[in-house]
Amino acid sequence: AQSVTQLDSQVPVFEEAPVELRCNYSSSVSVYLFWYVQYPNQGLQLLLKYLSGSTLVESINGFEAEFNKSQTSFHLRKPSVHISDTAEYFCAVSDVSGGSNYKLTFGKGTLLTVNP
Amino acid sequence: ETGVTQSPTHLIKTRGQQVTLRCSSQSGHNTVSWYQQALGQGPQFIFQYYREEENGRGNFPPRFSGLQFPNYSSELNVNALELDDSALYLCASSHGTGDYTFGSGTRLTVV
C-alpha cells in the first residue's frame, strides 16, 4: 500500500518570499509523483509531475520539485510567490507497475496563503 | 482539445435517495477514475474504468457503482445516500499512462 504525508497543513508566507511545501511518500515499488493545485470551489489542476529521467521537474509558473528516492520525498518549492499562488496544494503518488490501473494516492493537502 | 467535463456542478439530495453523476472524458482518453474529496481532505480513490471494465476499486462500499460507455464517458451511481457521502466528486481521465486530467467536480450535499 502507498501513502503520502504532507507535513504542513497550512503555510502562510508574504508575497515575494520563497516557499517550500513538503511531501513524503511510502511505497514498496517504484512510483510516479505529482503535485496538483486546487483553487477555491474548483477541481484539481496538474502543477508538475515526475515520471522518469531528471529528478528536478519544473512548472511553467515558477514552481519546481525534486524527487529524492533515498529520502522518499518530493518537496515543492518556489523562490518568490505571488498573491495568485494562494491555493490548496496536493501531493500524489501512483504505482509505476500499475499497468492500466494507475490510481492516485493523495496527501491531505497544504493550504498556501500568500499575504501582501 | 476539450478537457474533462462533469455534470451537474452542484446538487442536493435527501438521505436514502440515489444519485447519478456524469463525466465526459478528455478526447483520446480511454481510462476514467472517480475520486471523493471530503471537506478539508485529499481526494480518495473510488474506482477506475478502462475500456468499459472496472479495473481497480478503493475502499468504498458496493452502493458506489459506475459505468463507462463506448465513447469513454462515465457515470458514478451512489445508492442509499448517507450524510457522510456529502463531498466533492472528481472525475479524471487519462490515456492509460497514469497522467490524469481532472474535471471541476460535482459538489454533492446530502441532507
What are the salient characteristics of this protein?
heterodimer, A: 116 residues, mainly beta, 6-stranded mixed sheet, 0% helix, B: 111 residues, 7-stranded mixed sheet, 4-stranded antiparallel sheet, globular
Description:
Chain A is mainly β and 116 residues long. In chain A, 0% of the residues lie in helices and 53% in strands. In chain A, the strands form 3 sheets. In chain A, strands 2, 5, 6, 10, 11 and 12 form a 6-stranded mixed sheet that branches. A 4-stranded antiparallel sheet of chain A has the order 3-9-8-7, with no helix packed on it. A two-stranded antiparallel ribbon of chain A has the order 1-4. Chain A starts with a strand and ends with a strand. Chain B has 111 residues and is mostly beta strands. Chain B starts with a strand and ends with a strand. Chains A and B meet through β6, β10 and β11 of A and β4, β5, β9 and β10 of B.
Order of helices and strands of chain B: EEEEEEEEEEE
Which regions of chain A are unreliable across 5 or more consecutive residues at pLDDT < 50? none
Intertermini distance of chain B = 37 Å
The helix content of chain A is under 10%
